[in-house]
Amino acid sequence: xxxxxxxxxxxxxxxxxxxxTCATSGFTFSLYTMYxxxxxxxxxxxxxxxxxxxxxNTKVVDSVKGRFTISRDNAKNSMYLQMxxxxxxxxxxxxxxxxxxxxxxxxxxTQVTVSS
Length: 116
Hints:
- The chain has 116 residues and is an all-beta fold.
- The chain has strands spanning 3-7, 10-12, 18-25, 33-39, 46-51, 58-60, 68-73, 78-83, 92-100, 103-106, 110-114.
- β5 and β6 (58-60) form a beta hairpin.
């Protein structure tokens, strides 16, 4: 049974930091490219960052460049998103996704709220 479970979200003040974790099971994590998406209220779900495997090549979207870092630990079947210098506009539900060929899996999401 495939599972992707996000954790680490919460309420943080502007300028603060959070580290999201996507813990996975039920598939060969090391073969999959992994993604972080987010969806703010009333908006479309958008890509935030991705990390390939093998090679761990990464890409983050311009709106979070220099603030967010994506990483993975294939030994732990987990992916991470380090989020620094958070802004109110980063408020969203954050989702992880695993993708390889025609296989696509989503997590249930974790809420991140940036507010004073």
